[in-house]
Write a structure and sequence with these properties.
3 domains, TIM Barrel, alpha/beta, nine-stranded mixed sheet, globular, about 650 residues, 31 strands, 17 helices
């Protein structure tokens, strides 16, 4: 229940000078840092905390009260209703999966995700999902959620809704209607604009049309995450498709994210050039990110990436008619062969998991003349498109992609009830840790966890998840670094991973002692307008300074926000206070991680109210608020259990990077 923080009375007006106020708050902060032995609901003791920033792990206890982390440090004298011994184990933020679809039937249990340490998934990848995000989230919450879910808004869905399945040019009015749908999704709390320009009918959209749909959407400071379009005209070039994603992001002001990044077929071995292209974009001011899974094969509909685009125009019935025409069928087979050879290394690169057969076996069984002929025969026989495993790429390219500093690790998977066709649905995150950290040394523990937590959170704009720090939501995973590993295979894709011991979602144990508890503590997460997509700015020294007094609606607000954090330092130091005459007063006592971007900063922590209570908080200052016009700064303070306080002041926050 949301409630005012004051039970009654009036806060006295104060005339303390700014310097004296800073000193007083610094003293209060120091007092908060002392061991006052508060009680907790849960204490996780003795683990190695790897906090999601990329800093070296450190030995510490983690204290949780309600749904928040409230202390990280030595809590030897603290008491808790529930204590977990994490000695010899790693305590990390819950893993954030940037690439899930809109398949939520198993979200009430989500055992496959919890067994990987995943606590949050971002929906509607590759441009899909519904356009009514309110309805999607309401339905998900009503059914129950074992993990948190947050939506993207799907470009493909908007395109199909307005322009249909045909390859035709949209009118200006149609482009404007699509823009309204996309912006409506962002207003409703979408974490980004998701596209799959390799999938029909969005495949037919020209770059200038995509840019027109996304015109002015950049002011929301969100992401454009795209399954890159790979076309015959480009020679089936992955790099051309990824460059297109970056160019759309640059033209529209959205952060380009190359989703489930891979270097396919004939372009294998070019990771230096592809990643260099990303670095060049970032260097010229277009921060470019990616997500990837640690496998050398993907999964999608058999027809989607093999049957040529012109043959899929109009949907399944139209394609079936073309397959029945001998002349068109011959052309389809020829062009399907080109796609199979260029993208997947020939028919040996295609596996059909539903029947556990290789495409080469099907060719022999049905007497097909080629891989393309076999695919067409399957589609004609099945009268639908079965799922397929499509092999691509090289181990060296994959290792380089995973190691790139802006690549998040994501599973391209959904909650599962025990069914899956690709091992990524059960094994992605433990595989990254067990194989690519412990066995191969491609990543350090700290960087791998950063790529699963703090990096994806910053990439899409989260402020209160992805880090182990006071004030952050208590999404946590405890795992054994000696045993964590995937067990799922392409033959047995639902084998559970090992080494994930405990998973906490919003302060509740969703997975304990290696098994799901049945808790449904997950929540629907919406992105607010003051949560910009950004680089993860937690490695360098940074600071923020802001003090202002404003009268709004007859109420006097004094805001002081003066913090700094040195490179390598575990927490921010300084002062934070909000005073609202007659109704509210708040002073921070314990700080977490200072997160910054140009014209923007956010901090979590714990503070005190006049009644002496202690509350977790998130405070954000934002000079680039998309809902406001003109100069000024939006100040947003969200204190545990209270209604958010949001004020706009006519001065600009000073952020030091």
């Amino acid at each position: 229940m949301r409630r005012p923080l004051l039970s009654g009375g009036v806060v006295e007006a104060r005339t303390v000078t700014r310097t004296a106020r800073v000193l007083a708050l610094a003293g209060l902060s120091a007092l908060g840092a002392c061991d006052r032995s508060p009680e907790f609901d849960v204490v996780i003791r003795g683990g190695t905390v790897i906090d999601g920033t990329g800093r070296r792990g450190f030995s510490a206890d983690v204290g949780i009260r309600s749904d928040r982390i409230v202390r990280v440090g030595n809590l030897a004298d603290a008491r808790a209703a529930d204590e977990v011994d994490a000695t010899g184990h790693v305590v990390a933020p819950g893993f954030i999966n940037l690439h899930s679809h809109d398949r939520l039937s198993a979200a009430p249990t989500a055992v496959n995700l919890l067994g990987q340490g995943v606590t949050t998934i971002i929906l509607n990848a590759d441009g899909g999902g519904p356009l009514d995000l309110d309805a999607q989230l309401a339905e998900a919450e009503q059914a129950g959620l074992a993990v948190n879910v947050g939506p993207n808004i799907g470009f493909n869905r908007a395109w199909a809704e307005v322009n249909g399945m045909e390859d035709r040019r949209p009118s200006p009015a149609a482009l404007a209607e699509m823009r309204t749908l996309v912006e409506g999704g962002l207003r409703a709390g979408a974490w980004g604009v998701a596209a799959g320009l390799d999938y029909k009918p969005a495949y037919y959209a020209r770059v200038d049309e995509v840019n027109e749909v996304l015109r002015d959407v950049g002011r929301w400071r969100s992401v454009f995450t795209n399954h890159d379009r790979i076309t015959p005209e480009s020679g089936f070039s992955s790099m051309t498709g990824m460059r297109e994603t970056v160019e759309i992001g640059e033209a529209t002001g959205l952060v380009p994210v190359i989703t489930h990044m891979k270097i396919q077929g004939r372009e294998q071995g070019t990771s230096d050039a592809v990643l260099g292209m990303m670095d060049e974009a970032t260097a010229r001011g277009v921060y470019t990110a990616a997500d990837a899974y640690p496998y050398l094969a993907g999964q999608t509909s058999l027809a989607a990436l093999i049957i040529p685009g012109w043959a899929q125009e109009g949907g399944w019935e139209a394609m079936a008619q073309r397959l029945a025409d001998p002349v068109q069928r011959a052309r389809i087979v020829e062009e399907a062969n080109e796609a199979i050879d260029a993208r997947f290394g020939g028919p040996g690169g295609v596996f059909l998991p539903e029947t556990q057969t290789e495409l080469t076996d099907v060719m022999a069984d049905v007497g097909a003349s080629s891989g393309g002929d076999a695919v067409v025969r399957i589609l004609t026989r099945e009268e639908s498109s079965p799922t397929s495993i499509l092999r691509f790429g090289s181990e060296d390219d994959l290792a380089a992609i995973l190691a790139h500093p802006t690549t998040s690790i994501a599973c391209d998977c959904d909650p599962s009830d025990g069914s899956a066709s690709h091992p990524r649905g059960y094994g992605t995150f433990p595989r990254a840790l067990g194989r690519y950290v412990r066995e191969l040394g491609v990543l350090t523990w700290e960087d791998a966890i950063r790529k699963m937590t703090g990096l994806p959170a910053a990439t899409i704009g989260m402020v209160d998840r992805g880090l182990v720090a006071p004030g952050m939501m208590a999404d946590l995973v405890v795992f054994d670094p000696e045993t964590v590993i995937d067990r799922a295979t392409y033959a047995e894709p639902t084998l559970p991973s090992e080494g994930i011991l405990h998973v906490m979602v919003n302060g509740a144990w969703a997975f304990k002692e290696g098994a799901a508890t049945g808790e449904q503590a997950g929540r629907a997460l919406r992105r607010g307008p003051n949560m910009p997509a950004r680089e993860q700015g937690t490695a360098a020294s940074r600071s923020v300074s802001f003090t202002h007094e404003v009268v709004e609606g007859g109420t006097n607000h004094l805001v002081l926000f003066e913090l700094a954090q040195a490179a390598g330092q575990a927490t921010a130091e300084g002062a934070l206070e909000l005073l609202t005459d007659g109704s509210f007063s708040f002073a921070a006592t314990v700080f977490g991680e200072l997160q910054v971007a140009p014209g923007w900063a956010s901090i979590t922590g714990v503070g005190e109210i006049p009644t002496g209570g202690e509350r977790a908080f998130v405070m954000t200052v934002d000079a680039r608020d998309p809902l406001e016009r003109g100069d000024g700064t939006t100040v947003l303070l969200e204190v545990e259990g209270a209604d958010p306080i949001r004020v706009r002041v006519p001065v600009t926050v000073r952020v030091g990077l």
